[in-house]
Amino acid sequence: MAIITCPSCGKKISDNAPACGGCGLAKESREAGITRVLDVVDDVIPDNNPAIARPTENRFDCPLCKAPKTVVATEVPRFPQIVRASGFFIALPAMAGIVGGFIVAVLGLFASASPAAPGPWGPAGSRSTTVFAGLAISISSLIGGTVGWLLIMNRKVLRCSRCGHCLDRA
Fold this sequence. Notes:
4 helices
């Protein structure tokens, strides 16, 4: 373990530190030759806000092709297009399953309690079974929808506009 100087802010840090405590420059960025911290303000605050003073510099030199000012923050898909398409086919029906399961559970709550007059979902004794089935459908659909969403989402990277080289953002 050695003490080094952060190339971005000049603060003394450990070479094993995952990021600089002063400016947040990640270890991977340090090792890749990036010497300035990415301006992430643009991801959070819209450009039309005059009350926020923005840094004018948010591009870096590419560590692979050495082209100046070509690395910029962007998002890329986590998975290939066919996997993302399957994510949509999982997520969309799952949303309908969540709503349908909730409706079944609510209707099960209001099913007739009289043994002489069974409700639309079967005899009165099956009220708790209907509520449980509706909640089970909703929960399993929620899990399926989460898996579909994970297949669809993007990841944040630093990407060279010249050679296409990507570095994960810290």
